[in-house]
Amino acid sequence: MERLLLKNGLIVTMNANNEVIPEGNVLVEDGKIVSIGKDAPNKSDIVIDCSNQVVFPGFICAHTHLYSALLRGAPLMIDPPTDFTQNLQRIWWTMDEALTLEDAYTSTLYAVNEMALNGVTAYLDTYSGPNSIEGSLDRISKATQDVGTRGAICFEATERRSYEEGIRGLEENRRFISQNAPEKTLVHGIYCLHAAFTVSDELIHKTNDYAAETNSFKTIHTSEGMVDLHHNLEKYGKRTVERLYDEGFLGPRTALAHAVHINKHEIDLIAETRTNVAHNPKSNELNAVGVAQLPEMIEKGINVGVGNDGFIYDAIENMRTAYLMHKLNHRNPSQLPTPLQVVQMITINAAQSIGLKDHIGSIENGKAADFTILDAAVLPTPIHKDNVYGHFVYGSFSRRDVKRVIVNGKTIVKNGVHTSLDATTVSQQSKDSAISLWNRLDLTPRIARQI
């Protein structure tokens, strides 16, 4: 039984009482937290001195698209999109159709490693590759395990091209879920539908039935752009969340990604059903889709986690944008969320929004030993239990301060470097896949292999 001791750190538990323990200790046995407090055990196999460091539960990304890493910097030869639907049609759906199983692996390896270097220990990813469905989740799982983090992964089933293709995506999720239970592996499966405007009621019902068989988590993109809202109003006479509610998709084991174009009644339905929301503020800025009603959701008690939607794999930066965006939108410097609330959105709230609140998201006895440890030695002002959350939102901390990342009691990042992966090799694998992908697309000029 291996015992790990984190000693003398500022322990930010993110538990129900939001306890912060100065000069505290955390004892880990076989990957589980067994003791938290001031007293240190007499003997441990590994002792890590966390003096002048802040020990957080591992950061969690509530929603991402790992494969999007391969499109960074692509020289797109297209008419510039003027709205979200054109973005999908001209860029993402074209890219989706060109993805291969090798792309799924290399993009995951790069993106998950980048997130790990930024302190992220768990994520929820939705993969979309209609010509690389079967086996895609195995490749994503393999890459995630090579990095050493947790993942809740899924194929986003869609009827954009056909109902049969939607079923294939659903069955890929079902297969992977049956083989990978969350209590037995770092990477497990969930169910995903792309969005209400690309799936039928029949596919929604089939997904509900499959998820009920295994009490599996579900997710769907919801009212990210106006196209989702308009489609559901025109075809069903219902707003997006209203339709999902009527078809039985909402609930505490469901996460709605984005939820930008929703009204008060839809917020009430989300709250009533205890459905989770994944807020993606930086992606919403990039796609110019609008600003989600985060303060209103918080006031209704809705659980909200923060994700990156495949854009900027930096939990602290996304969290900080979530803090600032709504103050600007309401022109009110005191507007919710508070510093504590946004830190909750990348820890305990995000754990709930990906279906893992009982396992991760806080430093509590019995939970997995996932930690993100930040260096506070060079901060410009003192840090203590009463101001630790403020140091996040007001710019003291950044990705550069991630000192160590631990998953299941094992250090995977130390002093900004992965402990087993070679960054140059990971980067080159990603570049090779990106070049091959770009050359298969009609969107970009052909390029040779290069640095």
Give a written overview of the molecule.
There is one protein chain. The chain has 15 helices and 18 strands. It is of the alpha/beta class and 451 residues long. It has two domains: 108 residues, Urease, subunit C, domain 1 (Roll), CATH 2.30.40.10; 295 residues, TIM Barrel. Strands 1, 2, 3, 4, 5, 15, 16, 17 and 18 form a nine-stranded mixed beta sheet that branches. α4 links the parallel β8 and β9.
Please describe the structure with a list of short key phrases separated by commas or semicolons.
451 residues; Urease, subunit C, domain 1; TIM Barrel; nine-stranded mixed sheet; 15 helices
Query: Roughly how many Å is the radius of gyration?
Result: 21 Å
CATH level 1 class label of the largest domain = Alpha Beta
Instruction: Give the DSSP E fraction (strand runs of 2 or more residues).
Output: 15-25%
**Backbone shape:** globular
State the distance separating the first and last CA atoms. 45 Å
Largest sheet: 9 strands, mixed
The CATH topology of the largest domain comes to TIM Barrel
CATH architectural arrangement of the largest domain: Alpha-Beta Barrel
Helix content: 25-40%
Structural class of the secondary elements?
A: alpha/beta
Low-confidence stretches: none
SSE order and pairing:
Elements: E1 3-12, E2 20-29, E3 32-37, E4 46-49, E5 53-57, E6 59-64, H1 84-98, H2 101-117, E7 120-127, H3 136-147, E8 150-157, H4 163-179, E9 187-189, E10 191-195, H5 201-214, E11 218-222, H6 226-236, H7 240-246, E12 254-258, H8 264-273, E13 276-279, H9 281-287, H10 294-299, E14 304-306, H11 315-330, H12 339-344, H13 348-353, E15 371-375, H14 388-393, E16 402-407, E17 410-414, E18 417-418, H15 423-440
Parallel strand pairs: 1-4, 1-5, 6-7, 7-8, 8-9, 8-10, 10-11, 11-12, 12-13, 13-14
Antiparallel strand pairs: 1-2, 2-3, 5-15, 15-16, 16-17, 17-18
